[in-house]
Amino acid sequence: MTAADLFEYGLQEMSLFQFPAWEMKRIFQTDAPDVDWQLLFEQAGGTLVCERMVALKTDAVWRKLITEEIFKTARDTGMFWVPVPREGCIALGLMSADESPGKNFKPFVIDGKIYTEDALRELEKKLRGNVKIEK
Q1: pLDDT at 37 exceeding the cut of 90
Q2: Is the pLDDT of residue 112 over 60?
Q3: What are the residues whose beta carbons fall under 8 Å from the beta carbon of 85, sequence distance 6 or more?
Q4: How many domains does the chain have?
Q5: Which of 19, 71, 79, 113 could pair with 3 in a Cys bridge, judged by C-beta atoms 3.0 to 4.6 Å apart?
């Protein structure tokens, strides 16, 4: 799985309704040097909720954190984006019971594929590399 896969699957309508948020948490221990994920989360604009790195999937923090580089580092250190069920989001105060977080969300979509900002930059590089200017 790549960062773009996680982002794309997580923002599909049914996934977004049933699991409106992600929580970044350690799911296994590794020998890799650790990263101060809490600091990184806050620097990316995230706000801790009950001491947890959790935010709605539509929050801008994920557009900054779900990049291929950060995704690989997270995976190497045992961290992952865990889907948070709707009931959990309501209990944490992230949303109300009658709210639909994806209703007004506008992801980057090209030809039906959802892109992260990182993936868009890569796509732009590829496109620019294929453009030849004739004199």
Answers
A1: yes
A2: no
A3: 18, 19
A4: 1
A5: 71
Domain that holds residue 85: 3-130
d(CA 38, CA 74): 12
Residue with tokens 């944490």: 92
Quote the distance between the C-alpha of residue 71 and its chain's center: 9
Taking 70 as the threshold, does the pLDDT of residue 123 lie above it?
Answer: no
- Kindly state whether residue 82 falls inside one of the protein's structural domains: yes
Cα 75 from Cα 12, distance rounded (Å): 22
| Count of beta carbons in the 10 Å neighbourhood of residue 98 | 6
Identify whether 43 is part of a domain.
Answer: yes
pTM: 0.73
The b/e string for 8-36 (b: 16+ C-beta within 10 A; e otherwise) is bebbeeeebeebbbbbbeeeeeeeeeeee
**9-31 residue pLDDT tens:** 777 778 888 999 999 999 999 98
What CA–CA distance (Å, rounded) separates 33 from 77?
7
Please tell me whether residue 87 adopts helix, strand or coil conformation: helix
Residue 135 lies in a domain: no
Does residue 54 fall inside a structural domain?
yes
